[in-house]
């Protein structure tokens, strides 16, 4: 289970609580996106600031509509919180357009004090591409070089590496290559693993060594919707509280594992992730 570090989340500079920031989309069903991120931040006892990059009409059965937030309003939200709140770490989620990525990169480049977790939401579980090609290029050119760690899933790692990933050696090679190209740590998430890659194993390359993370499989969970968002947000929270990166990844993975195990129904056929262990042990 995920014991929180001794640090309480207090920020020495402000005299109050440290904050985490999410730059992502809204999930009207409350399962993923900004809603999942806030749930993780609060579980760690941290205040959450938000920048909405998109609004979605969705439930566990699909997304029926997406409204992209204009880049100038994304910029206005960032300007409202950066430098005002005691933001120790942030995460980015789905940024579908190059213009939004450019705005985010422009604003956060001046804030080297903030730990940055970039979740490159590019490929849906179905295999469908979620962002345009110019947005992928903007991610690679503008956002990844600013990141502390990027967290692609296997299909996204394949897009970034430009080749199939079919075994653990491929995963490690891709993670090391991406670190060399972008200068950040790389966590390749194994939740989409099949065949020779099963059971799911997350692989971190921090620039010096590889770290592997595996937890017991949960059979027939009520919900897994929002696990990628939750992992990135929990990782940002762990890093905001001062944990070293490998330890932070392990803690974030335990948080998500427990959230899946405690998922519950909130409607007919509608499940949601439960609270991770962190909230129960505050």
Properties at a glance:
disordered N terminus, UDP-N-acetylmuramoyl-L-alanine:D-glutamate ligase, nine-stranded mixed β-sheet, single chain, 282 residues, alpha/beta
Characterization of the model:
The protein is α/β, with parallel strands linked by helices and about 280 residues long. It has one domain: 3-Layer(aba) Sandwich (UDP-N-acetylmuramoyl-L-alanine:D-glutamate ligase), CATH 3.40.1190.20. The chain is built from 9 helices and 11 strands. The chain has a 9-stranded mixed sheet with strand order 3-2-1-4-5-6-7-8-9, sandwiched between helices. Strand 1, helix 1 and strand 2 form a beta-alpha-beta unit. The protein is globular, with a radius of gyration of 17 Å. The two termini are about 10 Å apart.
CATH topology: UDP-N-acetylmuramoyl-L-alanine:D-glutamate ligase
Unreliable stretches covering 5 or more consecutive residues: 1-8
Largest sheet: 9 strands, mixed
> Can you write the helix and strand succession as a string?
EHEEHEHEHEHHEEEHHEEH
Q: What is the domain tally? A: 1
How many strand elements? 11
Given helix and strand content, the structural type is alpha/beta
Q: What is the radius of gyration computed over CA atoms, rounded to a whole number of angstroms?
A: 17 Å
Mean pLDDT: 89
CATH evolutionary superfamily = Ribokinase
* Spatial strand order of the main sheet: 3-2-1-4-5-6-7-8-9
* Helix fraction bin: 25-40%
Number of helices: 9
Could you give the distance between the termini?
12 Å
CATH class: Alpha Beta
Shape: globular
